Amino acid sequence: MKNKLKQFLELYFAFVKIGAFTFGGGLAMMPIMQRELIEKRGWITEEELIDYFAIGQSTPGIIAVNVATFVGYKKLGWLGGIIGTIGVVTPSWVIIMLLAGAISSVDKYPVAQKALKGINVAVAALLTSVIVKFSKKTIKNIWNALFMLLAFALIYFFKVQSVWIILASLIIGSLLTLYRQKKQKTSVSQKEGE
After folding, report:
1. Model-level pTM?
2. How far apart are CA 147 and CA 55, in angstroms?
3. Rg of the Cα atoms in the chain
4. Which residues contact 57 (CB under 8 A, 6 or more apart)?
């Protein structure tokens, strides 16, 4: 029982740390999650993190909360999912409760505005780093690269909502997988018939 409690506490505080040191939303948490969950603790693989972010992006709710739920569930079952979720939202909840009254007055302080602009630049650098690193893992052929560029163009230039890109990717990926499986079965059947 003590060992289980220790695991729950480790899970909770790992996600408290992730939630406390991340600015800029769910995708900005990716580098910290990678460091904490993959490199430091070995709880998940990079491929799993990419999958969790993809699922978290395409399901309702906040990406970081969804990922915390997935990782917690994988590590310690349904209770782990709940604890991971509570852990990742705890810092935001505490900070928001403390700063709720001061938020409206941030516009009055140029130092606060400059600090927020600096945080935005740092978040952009972190996201660029993540994109480069994970692109190496996910773009395995020319078709993946072309599809990524098409998705980028549709979102950036034509303002297509990302939900439609995600749904299209799901459908196209499923159809391609079914086609490959059918082709593979046909090839195996032909070899057996010879």
Report:
1. 0.66
2. 18
3. 21
4. 63, 162, 166
- What number of H helices and E strands is found in the chain? 7, 0
Spatial CA neighbour of 25 closest among 63, 51, 57, 58 = 63
Half-sphere exposure of 31 (CA within 13 A, CB side): 18
Query: Alpha-carbon distance 180 to 78, whole Å?
Result: 35
Phi and psi of 157, rounded to 5°? -90, -35
Phi, psi of 12 (to 5 degrees): -60, -50
**Helix locations, 100-161, DSSP H:** 110-138, 142-156
Kind and range of the H or E run holding 58: helix 46-58
pLDDT digits (tens, 9 = 90+) for 22-58: 776 667 788 888 899 999 999 999 889 988 988 887 7
Q: What secondary structure letter does DSSP report for 100?
A: T
Residues 29 and 25: their CA atoms lie apart, in Å, by 7
> Domain map of the chain by residue range?
2-138, 140-194
Residue type, 194: E
Token reading at 145: 């690269």
Contact 84, 9 (CB under 8 A): no
Choice between 74 and 122, residue whose per-residue pLDDT is larger: 74
Q: Which of 24, 4, 26 is nearest to 15 (CA)?
A: 26
